[in-house]
Amino acid sequence: MAIDVIVPVYGNAGTVVEALESVARQSVFADVVLTVADDASRDDSWERIRAWGAGRRNVRTFRNPANLGVMANYRRLLAECRGEFVAPLEADDIWLSDHRLERLRDHLERSVGAACFNGFIVDDLVAGEQRPDLLSAARRHRRLSTFDLIADNAPASFSNCFYRRPALAAAFDRAAGHEGYDWLVNTLIAAGHGGFDYWPEVLSSYRVHGDGTWSSLSKREKASLIEATLRTLRTLLPARYERAIERRLSNLEEYAGG
Length: 258
Fold this sequence. Notes:
Layout: E1 3-9, H1 16-24, E2 32-38, H2 45-53, E3 59-63, H3 70-79, E4 85-88, E5 94-95, H4 100-110, E6 115-124, E7 129-132, E8 142-144, H5 146-151, E9 161-164, H6 165-175, H7 182-193, E10 196-208, H8 219-236, H9 242-250, H10 252-257
Parallel strand pairs: 1-2, 1-4, 2-3, 6-10
Antiparallel strand pairs: 4-9, 5-10, 6-7, 6-9, 8-10
Helix pairs in contact: 6-7, 7-8, 8-9
């Protein structure tokens, strides 16, 4: 089954080629259409993307004439997708295993689920340490519920996720005009499709660095964004999730002051 890999880029000149190489090494790369969209970067990301993609028949590269913002850039990329599955990769992350796409595609082909995420390493360049994902201790397959995702953003990044295209496109449509990012999209998918699968094998590296959209924020700024996402979820999810959302909201003051 065809797989669309989508890579949004903004100011990632130092990391984007490494990210793209981790896609090109995939065992099923012949079945992949790789689409990269530079969101009017001010560095030389576009020049590096264009040079890397030149002559590769299954690689498409675009440059937005003006900055759209990350979610709008993702929507632009999704509009180009035609395959059954979609695998996003943030331009500062990498896939560690050459068999990642093969593993996750095979899993979803056997599963009734619409999405999954793999075990991953958090490469914290700020703290100078690497640590495993939140579910690593169990190292077993499981399906996270919507309640699990409300309680914690276990997938952590789009880079660790793999989707059936219709489910991802529908979640982005529902999220349009609302505050939120990967956590919002993944929770909407879980609510609409009976959960979100966890594949425990470590297949990717999620990088935390000082210039990151999330890692550069203060705890109070992070709490504000978490609150905005939770309030969006309260608007979009059925009433049965209200109490779980309220519990998470009640913990935000402690988080911000910690």
